[in-house]
Amino acid sequence: MKTIYEGKTKDIRQEDGKTYFYFKDDVTGKDGVFDPGENQVGLSIEGSGRACIAMSKYFFEKFEADIIPTHYISADVDNRLMEIKPAKVFGKGLEVICRFKATGSFIRRYGKYAKDGDDLNRYVEFTLKDDERQDPLINEDALVLLGILKEGEYDRIKELTRSISQVIYDDLKARGLEMYDIKLEFGRLEGSDEVVLIDEVSGGNMRVYKGDEYIEPLRLSEMIVGK
Predict the structure, then answer these.
(1) What are the angstrom distances between the C-alpha of 34 and each of 26, 28, 89, 115, 143?
(2) For a 10 Å CB count at each end of the chain, is N or C smaller?
(3) What is the pTM of this model?
(4) How far is C-alpha 193 from the chain's CA centre?
(5) pLDDT (tens digit, 9 = 90+) per residue, 96-135?
């Protein structure tokens, strides 16, 4: 396979006209400590790549059953390869957060008006992928003005984000778990204007609790799909 892009935790590879994600065991963190909120590779954890692709496969196939558009085609968990439809990211990368409960950066910004654990009713935020500027928030007007989104795409992405997040929330709730928030990415399918979910859906993309206990990403994957 030819590697056409090397990312922090996964690479994009091509072979025989097909495109794949290869999930690595590298994880984000700082000073040798695993932290999914960091923007740099901090260490390597054996099995983390397999955990990410297994959980992504599980949820992407749930979305397919619910007719939610994604870039997913199939996954080979043992070889850590996910076949995907080529898609173009918005601008230089856009992240969309859906918040069920107030925590993290939401409290840091709005702590005068909210406390940790307050209900947020699927509140949606858009941020630019920009490590240097710490992934700044951006609104609809700026996204359109800067040519990152076309007219109407903001509302479509917001609608998809809430639908996707609710599917995951309900699945976890049935297991006695509660998702506080989740980060998703979207793009346009190559040669099309269709907006689809891209990237991965794994424990590192979400904050999940069992009562007051935070569930670490790798443990969450084991709870969803096993080892």
Answers:
(1) 10, 6, 26, 26, 32
(2) C
(3) 0.92
(4) 21
(5) 999 999 999 999 999 999 999 999 999 999 999 998 898 9
